[in-house]
Description:
The protein is of the alpha+beta class. The protein has helices at residues 2-9, 21-27, 45-51, 68-72, 95-105, 120-131; strands at residues 30-35, 38-44, 56-62, 77-81, 84-90, 109-116.
Amino acid sequence: MLExxxxxxEGKAVLIATHEMHVAEDVxxxxxxxxxxxxxxxxxxxxxxxKHTEKIYKIKVKVAGSDIHTILNRWEYKVLGHNVYEFExxxxxxxxxxxxxxxxxxxxxxxxLKVDEPxxxxxxxxYLNIKEGK
Length: 134
């Protein structure tokens, strides 16, 4: 794979056909999605990922008191310990800003924030399922 990367750096066009999306993600800058002989997509990998994914924010919060119940009724969560919760917030709408406002209102402390972005393999499978109406 290093040889392929070096060829691309030299300005040479390199065409790779693979079912291994991690290989494509590692060495290519563009991706073409073919299904049953039809070209479904052809664009830069990051643009493809941005268009076809929804980021999930995993937020670890510590909140003491009974005010947390308004938040627990509104968003998915896991209990991690005494007064410590992990929430999964999607990008859609204004979920993240609303969540942050609610946490602030109840005096919550953000302990950790992670952004979970699916890899090209997950996006590819999901994309094909949508295109095939599954």
